[in-house]
Amino acid sequence: MQHTPTTRHPIVGFTLAEVAVVMAIIALLLGGLLSALPNHMRQKQIQETEASLQTLREALMGHALSHGHLPCPDINLDGEEDLALLSQCHRSPADVRCASTDGNATPGQPSDLANQQVCAAQTGQAPHVTLAAEGHDAWRNRISYRVEPAFSNHSVPMLLSSTGSLQLCDNTGCNRAQARGVPALLISHGANGLGATSASGTRNPPPTGEDELANTDGDLVFVHHEPRGTGGTGGEFDDQVAWVPATLLLNRLVAAGRLP
Ligand SMILES: [Ca+2]
Ligand SMILES: [Ca+2]
Ligand SMILES: [Ca+2]
Question: Which residues are near ligand 1, the ion (C-beta closer than 5 Å)?
């Protein structure tokens, strides 16, 4: 009886040590990917919000070109600008509500003053329906909007000499400004959303840091700088701000023949 010779194959496999090394490498890679994911998401949200702010800023300038003034803020959260007659306004020292005594009024004509259509408030939400643009940031909070009376009076068109009083600064003391004499500002209250109104109309708690408080307190000074945690001077900060420079706005109005 003849036996057929058989071929002997070596046993192919991994030792336990090799498997352990491979598993460790996979765990490290997965850990790295997972830890990078929130940062990647946050960067995407910041970029998305920046794009929304720039779109709204362009829409504001487009509105000024077609109407001769910037729109008023939305204060009743329907997305449309809110107006009042100057005679209906209440001037408050804490805010410059209806403070349309901006030098454009014709002296000696109080009745004209009383019938001027002005903003019901100079601070509110971006009137995204009026502007036909998205009005919220990446965290589904409405973008806040502040506009100066000299640029938003609907009865008295802005002039080449119109100036704003808003200041965008590095800190609340404003010893270093990024822009002065600003006609209008748009603010996203960032990932923490403090001080914002949500897209569904819920008012979020106020900011805890003084730099973010500067963007919600209704005065003329606004703050913008790099994001910061809770530890630094001025407190936590993640707001994003865009502004309409007076020079750019007036230049576009002149180029379009809206101003002499
Ligand atoms: Ca409204
Ligand atoms: Ca914030
Ligand atoms: Ca302020």
Answer: 74, 76, 78, 80, 82
